[in-house]
Specification:
about 270 residues; Rossmann fold; 7-stranded parallel beta sheet
Length: about 270
């Protein structure tokens, strides 16, 4: 990595899959003074046992925060809890990873209902929108500080102040004809395409504050959502993404990249 990630880092959707692996590898790699806020819907539930075990290994580095990205009151409570812990430090990195897919893949049109579309959009788009909006003062506070030593040449970096929206290759409108037959997934595809536009809007809106905003495709990963046929492990995906995050700078603001740093057409 060109520079360890540092400061205060918040990740959503951390009870399993990519989110859990992000917290695990970040806890191993971040600077000693860094702190991770691992957000999930049910911190006390059985599905969060692995996250609780991980937090117990790194009690000085990981705080588990209750957060349901489909619930505005839950988001407000999480922002308040994190703000109280961070104090004057600011939030250096917000990783919007939490997402849902309804109905089950391949989710053809015949099986997709209005509720599926609305529920997926609320979690995958509205949640990241509200999180960025509510955490903006803390992101601005972090951006106002002097950049870390390795970032003197760039005003933007994930070590200073950034939002990373976890997207997907199948949100690409241009590439849809190449992969639509594999999995129609109307709600998931359209919500992630909307997340890409949200990324572009935030990048334009926040660049005056030197807040980096980038969308990243983590690869086709072997998780509950990705399925058993996926070629990548969450470990390999996250290892690649963290290498990428450590290298992002001004030129990457508003981009849609894969886990290796290659551009993906909108």
């Amino acid at each position: 990595m060109s520079g360890e990630l540092c400061g205060n880092i918040l990740v959503t959707g951390t009870s399993r899959g990519i989110g859990l692996e992000l917290v695990r590898q970040l806890a191993q790699q971040v600077e000693k003074e860094a702190h991770l806020y691992a957000c999930c819907r049910d911190p006390e539930g059985s599905r969060s046992q692995a996250l609780r075990d991980l937090a117990a290994q790194y009690p000085d580095k990981i705080s588990i925060i209750r957060l349901d990205t489909s619930d505005e009151d839950s988001i407000s409570a999480a922002v308040k809890a994190v703000s109280e812990q961070i104090g004057d430090g600011g939030l250096n990195l917000l990783i919007n990873n939490a997402a849902i897919n309804q109905p089950d893949s391949p989710a053809p049109l015949s099986a997709t209902e209005k509720k599926h579309m609305m529920d997926v959009f609320e979690t995958n788009v509205v949640g990241p929108f509200l999180l960025a909006k509510m955490f903006l003062p803390l992101l601005q506070r972090a951006a106002e500080r002097d950049p870390p030593g390795n970032d003197k040449g760039d005003k933007m970096s994930c070590r200073r102040s950034a939002i990373i929206n976890i997207s997907t290759m199948i949100s690409s409108i241009e590439k849809c004809p190449e992969n639509f037959s594999m999995a129609q997934m109307y709600p998931y595809r359209t919500s992630k395409a909307a997340l890409n536009m949200l990324t572009r809007c935030q990048a334009e809106d926040f660049k005056a504050d030197n807040i980096l905003v980038t969308a990243i495709h983590p690869g086709w990963v072997r998780t509950d959502m990705g399925g058993e046929m996926a070629p990548m492990t969450s470990q390999d995906s996250v290892l690649g993404m963290l290498r990428l995050l450590s290298s992002l700078s001004n030129k990457d603001c508003g981009k849609f990249l894969d886990w290796q740093g290659e551009s993906i057409p909108w």
